[in-house]
């Protein structure tokens, strides 16, 4: 959502890359909207009617990431009481979105690299190759070239993932989008609460536009929701913003 030059450039890039199967790396700070870019690419692609499977690599313990991505066979490790389908297999004919790929262990990175090279997976504890047809979109808030220098990310995997790089700017670098984002969030949040859409006064929008958004789009959405719940009944004022948004 937005009409800033930065966002329009991203929209143009999405239009060009969506119809292809090119691997994409989305970079940008936390909360900047990397997940929305991935969803937009998938929904505009030839795979839109097939699954988009999201994996937050930072949220899965390193000892479980391989089972999560590739699945496992019963008895392959303690607690593996039945066969499990991994995320890559679940995304077959669709798209897998590897969020925070920079947090993945080197062991898991090696196995993801093999998937990208051979288009097949092996379940943990299984010896059989399973052919898959999956588009890979990855995202990170880290400087992966820096991680490569530190020995924390594989250079060969980086080059496989970064066929197309989409750089999502911080909200502070695209402030012109803030009024449209406020309107978008206000509409969605009000509808989900079953209430009339709350308007924001010009002075409230001006004040929100001038604030420092270190948490980016995610932080703005949280603030809009807070103002809708706690602010004046008819219209959100600059007084409400001063009271509840800072």
Rg value: 21 Å
Task: Tally the structural domains.
Answer: 2
The strand order across the widest sheet is: 2-5-8-1-9
Provide the CATH superfamily of the largest domain. Answer: P-loop containing nucleotide triphosphate hydrolases
Secondary-structure element pattern, one letter each: HEHEHEEHEHEEEHHEHEHHEH
Strand content: 5-15%
Shape: elongated
- State the end-to-end distance: 23 Å
Mean pLDDT: 94
- Estimate the helix proportion, in percent: 40-55%
The CATH class of the largest domain, by name, is Alpha Beta
CATH architecture of the largest domain: 3-Layer(aba) Sandwich
Helix tally equals: 11
CATH topology of the largest domain: Rossmann fold
Going by helix content, strand content and strand pairing, the class is: alpha/beta
Poorly predicted ranges: none
E-strand count:
11
User: What summary fits the major beta sheet?
Assistant: 5 strands, parallel
Give the topology:
Blueprint: H1 5-17, E1 24-27, H2 34-43, E2 52-56, H3 65-70, E3 71-72, E4 84-85, H4 87-90, E5 95-99, H5 106-118, E6 120-121, E7 130-131, E8 135-140, H6 144-149, H7 155-161, E9 164-167, H8 178-192, E10 199-200, H9 202-210, H10 216-230, E11 235-236, H11 238-244
Parallel strand pairs: 1-8, 1-9, 2-5, 5-8, 10-11
Antiparallel strand pairs: 3-4, 6-7
Helix pairs in contact: 8-10, 9-11
Overview of this structure, please?
This protein has 246 residues and is α/β, with parallel strands linked by helices. The protein folds into two domains: 5-169, Rossmann fold, CATH 3.40.50.300; 172-244, Helicase, Ruva Protein, domain 3 (Orthogonal Bundle). The protein contains eleven helices and eleven strands. It has helices spanning 5-17, 34-43, 65-70, 87-90, 106-118, 144-149, 155-161, 178-192, 202-210, 216-230, 238-244; strands at residues 24-27, 52-56, 71-72, 84-85, 95-99, 120-121, 130-131, 135-140, 164-167, 199-200, 235-236. The strands form four sheets. It has a five-stranded parallel sheet with strand order 2-5-8-1-9. The protein has a two-stranded antiparallel sheet with strand order 3-4. A two-stranded antiparallel ribbon has the order 6-7. Strand 6 (120-121) and strand 7 form a beta hairpin. Helix 8 (178-192) crosses helix 10 (216-230) and helix 9 (202-210) packs parallel to helix 11 (238-244).
């Amino acid at each position: 959502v937005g009409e800033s030059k930065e966002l329009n450039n991203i929209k143009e890039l999405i239009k060009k890359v969506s119809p292809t199967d090119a691997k994409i790396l989305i970079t940008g700070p936390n909360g900047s909207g990397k997940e929305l870019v991935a969803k937009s690419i998938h929904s505009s692609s030839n795979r839109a009617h097939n699954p988009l499977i999201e994996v937050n690599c930072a949220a899965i313990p390193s000892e479980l990431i391989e089972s999560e991505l590739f699945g496992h066979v019963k008895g392959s490790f303690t607690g593996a009481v039945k066969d499990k389908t991994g995320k890559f297999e679940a995304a077959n004919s669709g798209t897998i979105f590897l969020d925070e790929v920079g947090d993945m262990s080197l062991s898991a990175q090696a196995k993801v690299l093999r998937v990208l090279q051979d288009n097949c997976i092996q379940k943990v504890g299984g010896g059989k190759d399973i052919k898959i047809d999956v588009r890979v979109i990855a995202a990170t808030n880290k400087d992966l070239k820096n991680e490569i220098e530190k020995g924390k990310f594989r250079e060969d995997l980086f080059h496989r993932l970064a066929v197309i790089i989409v750089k999502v700017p911080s909200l502070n670098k695209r402030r012109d989008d803030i009024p449209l984002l406020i309107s978008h969030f206000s509409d969605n949040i009000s509808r989900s609460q079953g209430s009339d859409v709350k308007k924001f006064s010009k002075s409230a929008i001006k004040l929100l536009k001038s604030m420092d958004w270190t948490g980016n789009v995610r932080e703005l959405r949280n603030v809009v929701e807070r103002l809708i719940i706690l602010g004046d009944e008819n219209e959100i004022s600059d007084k409400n913003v001063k009271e509840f948004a800072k």
